[in-house]
């Protein structure tokens, strides 16, 4: 707030207070006619033959009004209200929020600590921990991975058995803490449209899907030279590089031949943001257990 | 000539005086009185007071009979527990209570105020302490006029001591509705209690002491919202306290031996007892006033005087304007019947709603993802977020089932335990084979049922969206 607006607000606030106080004090006395009966004085208003008495108001109203002025003065000294004057107590919304957050931390830290000592496989079977996991997932992960963890176009499904970076508990935790960067290069320059078509048919053949045998045969060589380094000679992927398995029917960017061709043309750069900075480790531990539990088939083990 | 006297002279010239707009009310010194209505007041106030004091101590189902658990946002009332979602019940309960008040007001005026209102009951208790320590009206007036001395200190001290004690018990009981009272008392005794609880005990002690000790009739006159608008509900057939001016006027003092007829007087002997006993400091003989709380004190007082004078009772009595003027009262009038009918309807609907309250709530939200549906291999999936709300008093595990026009299946549902009052939010997938689905939009019904109690169930129907149909 600039000095002018700060002053503007201060002047407005104090002027209003002073005016109200003046109105109150200036009207403490009322003029009455001498010859009127003080017991049965009326205001002179008549509605349907009903007259209004002009009795004095209770004194404690006046006292309460004065008390509100005192309150206003004390409040404006203690709390922010007068322009950019921060108040003697130094209260701010942020401090209030932080205080509440610390309270919440203190409330949950005991339970978090207990969970942090529990191995992830065990934690995935603890209903209370999984309730926490549900909420943490909904708040931090569901935006990309879907509220059920079922994924979206470009965001992996966490409920199946296909793991781009590995589905072991520790791998999941690592993924959460450090984040992941996938790097599928664009091949349109080196392979050309014909080469892309051939490699696509070969990839289809690896998954034992409908394909053009001639083109696939031509694509095999190109695959071995360019793709096998990451995806493996058999196309089953590499969790250390985040290279997906090309032989299953799980496709992050679509599994139709046209989708595969597009992926080859332009490349893909999937990013899982690192959560280690944002979430405390004990929360990540619970989240890892929750994600791990997503792929366990719950209906069968109880 | 000073300025002041100039001003004064001017005032005289113009015939204008200046008076204070705000004036302190005179302190009301009530005369002690006994009689039929005072007995009635005691017997209506006492049970309510006893219920108020004992309720926090009662235990039902191993929990306090009445506990408003604010941190947990659960209200436990006798055999039922309410959560935030049941706010409607509270709202309707208050509406019904308001309509009951309207109905009663049309019928018998402000009897709630005079007989059962906590304001009245506590004021009565405080006045009892006043009588006990300082004596009756005249004695109290004399005591107040006297300078401070040992006797005055002792009497006043005792009175305020009793007041504070009553106020403290009141406050402890009141906070006991929000914090389990045994914990509260033990906590206060061992100075190991939440500062908020201690603050509220102190606050309500101070408030009760101020209110029943000093504010009293000011609350009924100026603060109470009901008092502000009760007068519009009166009509000529409302039973309320009236002075029978036909019989009483012209008033005047006389000896009990005099024949009032000879003196040309009515039955009112102008002893002003009715004014002295009045807790709101009005003269009922001026006619019905908005301040009157229908407590019947002046009725009892006047009846005592009439008995002494050997006149018939009922110069001041509970009657109606029509009865005094025309000699008969119409009880069943449209206003009363209307209020009564509305009240009856609301009460029955409320009772039905309460009995039909399901012990479990289910809300189903379609997932706000990027897509309407998901294709997963040969299947079409829709994702829903369930909110399962356990309104029962026990922890339950719920089983979920799905039904609809197509062979729907559920995936990803976890049967987690839901404790009392908890709302469990969890995602679930409804899956159907793509071949089986021959429509874009259909409905699907989800049903939750408590695992160990099939009586506890509820259903929710929502839409299922599939891919646009291909040209076959």
Describe this structure as you would to a colleague.
- Chain A is mainly alpha-helical and 302 residues long.
- In chain A, 53% of the residues lie in helices and 7% in strands.
- Chain A has a two-stranded antiparallel ribbon with strand order 2-3. In chain A, strands 5-6 form a two-stranded antiparallel sheet.
- In chain A, helix 3 packs across helix 12, helix 5 packs across helix 12 and helix 8 runs antiparallel to helix 11.
- In chain B, strands 10, 11, 12, 14 and 16 form a five-stranded antiparallel β-sheet that branches. Chain B has a four-stranded antiparallel β-sheet with strand order 15-13-17-18, with no helix packed on it.
- Classes of the chains: A mainly alpha (302), B alpha+beta (472).
- Strand 1 of chain A pairs antiparallel with strand 1 of chain B, so a sheet runs across the interface.
- What would you report as the Rg of chain B, rounded to the nearest angstrom? 33 Å
Measured by residues with Cβ under 8 Å of the partner chain's Cβ, the largest interface is:
A-B, 38 and 38 residues
Find the count of extended strands of chain B (DSSP E, 2+ residues). Answer: 18
Q: List low-confidence stretches of chain B.
A: none
Radius of gyration of chain A: 36 Å
* Class of secondary structure makeup of chain A: mainly alpha
Q: So how many helices of chain B?
A: 17
Per DSSP E runs of 2 or more residues, the count of β-strands of chain A stands at: 6
- CA-to-CA gap between the ends of chain A? 60 Å
DSSP helix fraction of chain A: 40-55%
Q: What's the shape of chain B?
A: elongated
Class from helix and strand fractions of chain B:
alpha+beta
Q: What is the share of helical residues of chain B?
A: 40-55%
**Largest sheet of chain B, described in full?**
5 strands, antiparallel
Please list the strands of the largest sheet of chain A in the order they lie side by side: 2-3
